[in-house]
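> forwarded from #structure-qc
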């Protein structure tokens, strides 16, 4: 029986096999926190910054220098690594640009989904949000989720509350829904591998 995480959902029987997992957004807030909790698996992490390659390696993943907007390069990485699971933790929050964040959800998300299918991945996991957005940001999240549901294999959408804690935008809990980054990482890592296909809330309030 699965231990109850900070989320209202069910999860699969624990998988004991080691899996190949490709994580896009490996050096983002959620990626950095989650990777160490997946140490028993064979990991690859994408970054478009040469300076962050060593950081990906230190987090326990094989680093790949790859811009998700370059589909041919992304496809080469996916076909080389042959992941069973592809995780989309892509954001552009560090840029401070809402337009950049919407673009990475649309274009980056679409490229990653197509590369995952082409490489024969069985599962696509997508980071989404559990709180309402407005305007184009809301439209981009909706498009991201809709496209994920069309993935040929298993699709898992993780709707996270507002992340808070070390390394995030918030040092103290903001308005709900929220989730501390440490709890988001442990719960996200478990659901990434074990969750039943579908949409799952990852918030302290739902826990």
């Amino acid at each position: 029986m699965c231990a109850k995480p900070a989320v209202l959902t069910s999860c699969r029987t624990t998988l004991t096999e080691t899996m190949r997992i490709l994580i896009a957004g490996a050096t983002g807030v959620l990626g950095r926190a989650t990777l160490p909790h997946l140490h028993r698996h064979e990991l690859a992490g994408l970054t478009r910054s040469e300076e962050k390659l060593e950081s990906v390696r230190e987090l326990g993943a094989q680093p790949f220098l790859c811009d998700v907007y370059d589909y041919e390069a992304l496809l080469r990485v996916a076909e080389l690594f042959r992941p069973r699971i592809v995780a989309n933790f892509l954001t552009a929050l560090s840029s401070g640009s809402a337009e950049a964040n919407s673009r990475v959800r649309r274009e980056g998300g679409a490229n990653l989904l197509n590369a995952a299918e082409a490489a024969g991945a069985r599962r696509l996991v997508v980071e989404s949000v559990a709180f309402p957005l407005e305007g184009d940001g809301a439209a981009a999240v909706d498009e991201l989720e809709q496209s994920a549901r069309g993935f040929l294999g298993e699709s898992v959408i993780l709707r996270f509350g507002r992340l808070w804690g070390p390394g995030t935008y918030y040092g103290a809990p903001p308005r709900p829904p929220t989730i501390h980054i440490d709890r988001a990482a442990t719960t996200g890592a478990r659901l990434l591998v074990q969750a039943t296909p579908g949409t799952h809330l990852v918030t302290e309030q739902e826990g």
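QC bot note: The two ends are 17 Å apart (CA to CA). Residues 6 and 184 are 8 Å apart (CA to CA).
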